[in-house]
Amino acid sequence: MSDDTVVVWDESMLAYDMGDHPLDPVRVELTVALARELGVLDRPAVRLVKPEPADDALLARVHDPRYLDAVRIAPRDPLFAGFGLGTSDNPVFEGMHEASALIAGASATAAEAVWRGEARRAVNVAGGLHHAMPARAAGFCVYNDPAVAIARLLDLGAERIAYVDVDVHHGDGVQQVFWDDPRVLTVSLHETPLALFPGTGFPDETGGPGAPGSTVNVPLPPGVDDAGWQRAFHAIVPSVLRAFRPQLLVTQCGADGHRLDPLADLNLTVDGQRATYLALRALADELCEGRWVATGGGGYALVEVVPRAWTHLLAIATGDPLDPATLTPPAWRELCAARRPGREIPLRMTDDAEPSYEPWQPTGEPNAVDRAIAATRKTVFPLFGLDPYDPRD
C-alpha cells in the first residue's frame, strides 16, 4: 500500500453553485487556497488528482434512474417541479447534473484510490452531500457522493465499510441508502432532530431487519461545546467501530457544528473540530491500516470557519497536523477580502480553545450530554455484544 494521500481537486468542482444560497462554493475555494498557501498540498506524499464525473451506472447504484433524468431535465424546464428540486433548499441551476456528478465522481475516485492501495488516505473537501435521497434532492444535496463512494467500494469487493458523520445535521441520506445492508455501518453525531433539520437521527434508528445495529445515532442537545462533543464521540464511536472491524473508514466532516455557524446551535471551535479529525485518523490507523476517505460537508461560516477547519483536515490526512497557532497567510487574507468584503478574517488557525474532556462514566448526576450518550449506548451497544454500562466497552 502506498503511503501517499490523494486529494481530489479541480476548480471545475466549484460549479456546484446554487447561486444566492448558504452552500456557497467560495468555502471550498478558500479552503484549497489556504491549504496551498500553508504548503499542505505541496507535501511530498500528496497527489492532486483531477476527478471524472460519475457515470449513470455508478449514480444508479444509489439513485433512481428517473431521478437522474429529472436532474438533467430540470434546468431546461421552467415549469419543472418534483423530486425535491426547485425548492429554496435545492434550487435548480444550470449544469446541475454535471456539477453533481463531478462531486460524486470525486468521492468515488478517492475511495477507489484507497481501496486499490494507490493511497493510504484520500480527501474530497467538496464532497459530503449526505442528505440526498435515492429519488429526491434534500438539504442542499443533489447526488449523495458519500453513498456513491461506499457503493463503489462494495462493488470492488469491500465487506465492511464504516461511515462516520460529524456534520451538525444527521447523515440521513447515507443511513437510508444502507439501512438494511450489514456490510455498512453508519454512525452520525449531530444536533438533536428535535431542534434541527432533517428531523431524523434518534437513537432507536438502528438499521433494518437484515442489518440490526448497522446504524448508530448520537443526537446531542443544542449548545454542546468541545468537551461535551468529545465526551460523546469517545464514549460511542471507538467502541462500535472496534466491534464492527471495518476494512476502510469513510467520514463526512461537516464544519457546521462551530459556534459561529448561522444554521445550527452547537458551540464547537476549530480546535475541537481538529481534535475530532485527529481521532478519526487514529481510528483508521488502528482498525483499517490507515485506510481513510474523508469528505467535507456542511459549513456556512464561509470565511471565518470552514477554510480553517478543512485545512486542518487536509493537514491531518496528508501528514503532520498544523500547529493551531499558525498564522493565516497574508495572501489568503487578501483573497478572503476580495471574495467576501466586510467579513471577519481569521488571523490564526485556532480559536484559542482547549478541546479536553472528561471521559464518560455511568455514575453521578447525568447532564444532557450524558443522557444522550446513555440513550445511544443502551439502544445499540447490546446489538454489538457490548455492555452499555461498562466504560471500557
Topology:
Elements (H helix, E strand, L loop, with lengths): L4 E4 L17 H12 L8 E4 L6 H4 L5 H9 L22 H20 L5 E4 L20 H11 L5 E5 L6 H6 L6 E8 L23 E6 L5 H19 L3 E5 L17 H18 L4 E4 L10 H13 L11 H10 L28 H13 L13
Parallel strand pairs: 1-2, 1-3, 3-8, 4-5, 4-7, 5-6, 7-8
Helix pairs in contact: 1-9, 1-10, 4-5, 7-8, 7-11, 8-9
Please provide a written account of the structure:
The chain has 393 residues and is of the alpha/beta class. The chain has one domain: Arginase, Chain A. 34% of the residues lie in helices and 10% in strands. The chain has helices at residues 26-37, 56-59, 65-73, 96-115, 145-155, 172-177, 226-244, 270-287, 306-318, 330-339, 368-380; strands spanning 5-8, 46-49, 121-124, 161-165, 184-191, 215-220, 248-252, 292-295. Strands 2-1-3-8-7-4-5-6 form an 8-stranded parallel β-sheet, sandwiched between helices. The model has no long low-confidence stretch (mean pLDDT 97). Pathway: Ketone degradation; acetoin degradation. Keywords: Acetoin catabolism.
